[in-house]
Amino acid sequence: MQIRSPEFKANSVKALSDAQLQKALGNVRAGFIDKRKKAVDALPEFDALRENGKAIKDHTLANLDLYLENYEAQVKAAGGHVHWAETAEDARRIILDLCASRGVKTVTKGKSMISEEIALNDALEAAGVRPVETDLGEYIIQLRGEHPSHIIAPAVHLNKEQIEADFRRVHTHLPADRELVEHEKLLTEARAVLREQYFKADLGITGANFLVAETGSSIIVTNEGNGDLTQILPRIHVVVASIEKVVPTLEDAAQILRLLARSATGQDMSVYTTISTGGRREGDPDGPDEYHVVLLDNGRSSMLGTEFQEMLRCIRCGACMNHCPVYHAVGGHAYGWVYPGPMGAVLTPSLIGVDKGGHLPNASTFCGRCESVCPMKIPLPKMMRHWREREFERGLNPAAARYGLKAWAFFARRPSLYRFFASLGIPVLSAAGGAKHRFSWLPFAGGWTKYRELPAPEGRTFLQQWAQREAKKQEPVR
Amino acid sequence: MQHQSTKRPTVGLFVTCLVDLFRPSVGFAAVKLIEEAGCTVDVPMTQTCCGQPAYNSGDREDTREIAKATIAAFEEFDYVVAPSGSCTGMLKKHYPALFAGDPAWESRAAEFSKKVHELVSFLADEMKVEGVTAKLTATATYHDSCSGLRELGIHDQPRKLLASVEGLKIAEMQEADVCCGFGGTFCVKYSDISNAIVTKKTANIETAGADMLLAGDLGCLMNMAGKLKRDGSSIEVRHVAEVLAGMTDQPPIGGAN
Description:
The complex is a heterodimer.
Chain A: H1 8-16, H2 19-41, H3 46-62, H4 64-77, E1 81-85, H5 88-101, E2 106-109, H6 113-117, H7 120-126, E3 130-133, H8 136-144, H9 160-170, H10 183-200, E4 203-206, E5 210-212, E6 217-222, H11 226-232, E7 236-242, E8 246-247, H12 250-264, E9 272-276, E10 290-296, H13 319-322, H14 325-330, H15 341-352, H16 354-357, H17 359-362, H18 369-373, H19 380-393, H20 399-412, H21 415-432, E11 438-439, H22 446-449, E12 454-455, H23 462-474
Parallel strand pairs in A: 1-10, 2-3, 2-4, 4-7, 5-8, 7-10
Antiparallel strand pairs in A: 5-6, 6-9, 11-12
Chain B: E1 10-13, H1 17-22, H2 24-36, E2 40-42, H3 52-55, H4 60-74, E3 79-82, H5 85-98, H6 106-115, E4 116-118, H7 119-126, E5 135-142, H8 146-152, H9 156-163, E6 166-170, H10 186-189, H11 191-207, E7 212-215, H12 218-230, E8 236-239, H13 240-244
Parallel strand pairs in B: 1-2, 1-3, 3-4, 5-6, 5-7, 7-8
Helix pairs in contact in B: 5-6, 5-8, 7-9, 11-12
C-alpha cells in the first residue's frame, strides 16, 4: 500500500474536518475503554499476568532463533511447510507461486495485518487471483477499496449508514427494497454473501496471533468464526505471520490469551480460539490438504538488540490506540500506512524508515495512557522519544524547530543570561498583555494563538522577586 | 527520608521555567505551603528549566548539560520540590535514565532522584499534611495532568487537600484523566490535533458545572485557560497550589472574563 505517513499533517487536517469520521471515532472512545476497564477490574491478577506475559515475550525474543527453528521442525513434523520471507516482496512471491502452481483462482482471507503489511491483495489481484476478505470489517473496507483504520476493528472509521450504502451498491443480486437498517440485518446479509465464497475458495489465508514452538501450531482468535471456515474449507491453508509471533509453549500462549481479549475488546476470551497444527491427517473428517506457513521478517530482526526490541512484544490488541487522544482525534488512516496509533508510531519508522515515518513518533503528547494500558508493558512513549533522537541525530526535523530549540537551550544552559533576559523581557510582555492578561495574537506564537489565547506573564519573574526578597532579609533592621 | 525532629528539613524549590516566567504567584504559594508543612525553603538561582523541551525533541546532549546543572544546584537539600508533575517526572524518572552507564553521573542522578517530589504529593505523602487552612467559596473541577498521574501516581492527594479548603466544593469532570492536548512543543507542532483534544477537554470542563478549573501543571493550565478564554468562558483557571495556599488575589491564568 502506498505510504502516506510523510503527509501526516495534511492527513490529520482532512480527518479533523471529516464529519462522518469524527462521528465514527466517537464510538472508539465509548466502545472500547469502559469495556476494557470492566474486564481488567474483574481480574485481580491482571497486573501479575502482564508481568508474566512480558517475561514470556522477553525470554522468547532473547532466544528467537532457537524457538523459530524449533517451530519450523514441528511444523514439518506435522506435515506442513515453512517458507522464510526476509522481505514483503519475498512473502508475496512465495504466496503467488503457491497460487500459480496449484491453479488457485479464489482466496479467502481471515483478518491479518501482515497481509496488509505485504500488500497481498493488490499482488493477488494483479496475478489474476481473487482475494475475498471474510472478517466483516475487512470485507466492508474491501468493498470500499480502503485499508484498515484500526488493527482489530478495521472499519471503525465508518458509520452504519455508509455500510448500508456499500451493501446496496455491491450486493445487486438482492432485492433493492430490502430492509437494511438494523446492525443484525447487515451482518446477516454479509454472512450469506460470504458463505458461498468459503466453498468457492481454493486457498485460505489466515494470520496468527501465536505460533507455538513446541507443537508447530498456529493460533488465531476471532469473534466471527470466519477464520475457522477460511482455514478448514479450502484445500490449501496458508498462515502468514511475522517472526515475533512465536512463543515457546501452548501454556505460554494460554497465559497471553488471558491478556489479549481483555485488553482488546474487554472480553474474557474471544468467541473462537482456533489452534491448527498441520493439514488434514488420515482419519480427520475435514481440513486442508496442504498447510503452509510464510514467516515474515521485513525488518524485525534488525530491531533485536536495539532500543526498539521491546516493540516486538506487541500482541496487536489495539488498547494503545483505543486510549490515545491523538488517535481519537484523527483516526487510523491519517497515520498513512498499515499500523496506526501509538504502536504504529513506534513500529512504522522501524519498518519503512524514520525519514518517511518520522511524523508519527512526534505526533504524541507523551500522555502515557498507551503504556499504562499496554498488556505487554511496552514503553511506547520512551521508544517514540528514541525515534525523535534518531531524527535529531540525522538532522531530519525541520530547520525552524532545530534553531528554535538550540536558541532555547542556549539560555537554559546559561542561568545568568536566562535570568538577565527574562527579567528584562517578561515585565514588558506582561504589560503588553494589558487588563485582559492575555494575547489573542503574538509574533512567532501563531501555533499557539491560532486556537487559544496566550495567558500573559503576571509581572516580574519569580527568580527576580525572590532575589529581591532575600536581599531585603539581609539588610540590617533599623 | 530521615531527618532530625529538632531540625527543619531543607527544601530546594525547583520553581519550573513556566512558573518563573508566567506565574510567579504559584512559586510563592508553593513556598508558603512547604514552610507551613515545617520545612525551610530555598531557591537556587542557577536553575532554569528541567530540560524537557530538548529531551522530548531528541536533543540528548543539551538535556544532559541542563540536567547536570540542575542536579548540582539542588544536591545540598534534603528535598527537591516542584509545583509540576511533568517537570518532577523529568527530574525524578528521566534524569537517572539520561545518565545510565555514565560513571561520573549515574549515581549522582540516582541519589538526586530520590529527593525529588511534586509539590502536592510532597505535602500529602512525605510531610503527612492532612489539611490546609485556606478558605475559598467556589466550585472547582480538577484536571489530572498526565505526567503527575501516570508517572508519579498523583490522583488522590490534591483531592484530599482540596477537600479541606473551607467553602470549596469539588465537581468532578468526565474524563479528568485524559490529556488536555498540551504536550509541550506538540501543541504548536501539531496545533490542529492539539486543538481537537483541548476542545473535548474544555467541553468536559464546561459540563462539570464548576466555576473554577484547577490542575497541578502550568503548561496544561495555560493550554486549557487559553482555550476557555478564546471561547469566552467565565471559568477561572488556577494552579492548585494557589487555592491550597489561600493566595487567589492575583487575576486567574489568562485573566478573568
